[in-house]
Amino acid sequence: MGSASFLKRVQALLRVRNQLTRECLAELLAVFVLMLITLGGSAQMVTSSGTKGNFLSAYLAGALAVMVAVYTAGGVSGAHLNPAFSFAMCLLEQFPWWKLPIFVAVQTAGAFIAAGAVYALYYDAIQHYSNGTLTTTGPRETASIFATYPADYLSLSNGFLDQVMGTALLIVGVLAILDTRNKGVPKGLEPVAVALLVFSIEVSMGSNCGCPMNPARDFGPRLFTYVAGWGTEVFSRGNGWWWVPVVAPLLGAAVGSALYQLLVAFHHPAEEGDPPAQQSCLVLTNATVPPDTELAPGEKDPGGDAAPEVMLGTPSPPPAGSRVPPAVALTPLKEP
Q1: C-alpha distances in angstroms, 73 versus 69, 96, 173, 224?
Q2: Residue 308 above 60 pLDDT?
Q3: pLDDT score recorded for residue 275
């Protein structure tokens, strides 16, 4: 009784009622969890020289990280975990444009903090493996633990196409899983389905550059490596590769969204009783906003419809030169 009373007092003192703040806090934690597991799997693989992990174990760590992250924040922020997915939701009018830069900043911050946590966790292992020298190239490079880098043979144009196609496939798969007019997934198992989707993309399209498919997942940890001592080479390696996993996934998100709408969602038969706006479009499943929640300025009360759940993220170890498994996670937040 005493303990329960104490917890209630703490909750009353610390509880945040502003909806936007709640979403940002949940999204930050979800991305942190996603990247902590994803980068941890990569660090274990690299620093042990493959004796305590391989590409498959890193992919699996990333896929499981997606599930954990979605369950962490899916009912609050929608667990987008990926600027590309947030961008796709804006294009589909399921997420307000004014929230996009806020979510992108929170997602990038979560990935940056997680990279710092993994560096601290594996500090001794990284120093031992690299002989105390933090490098981005060579047989003892460790930068690829955190960010993705292209294979030696990969051109920027081919890498850009790789990321557009991979992200487009990711978005098509996630939209199909979320579409209540399609086959559908048993309620509560959407994160599992998305994790399997990400895993399948990683093991089939990860050899070129590790399938980042998530601007925040790549840029946040890359920025950390720059600050932590790897130097400017984290941006110059691969002919200035760093911008490709930032820009290409956004284009891929637009392509994937358009493909699913044009080839599937627009052609769903109308059902009696459906509002006109939902008769020929993607319909997402939403959670509810607590009645005592304070909405942000300009934010409408969805009348019980808030953040839908689905997320997505995984690691992908790149080929020769990029051993890092990326992560991508997502879940839509519907707003009228």
Answers
A1: 6, 18, 20, 24
A2: no
A3: 59
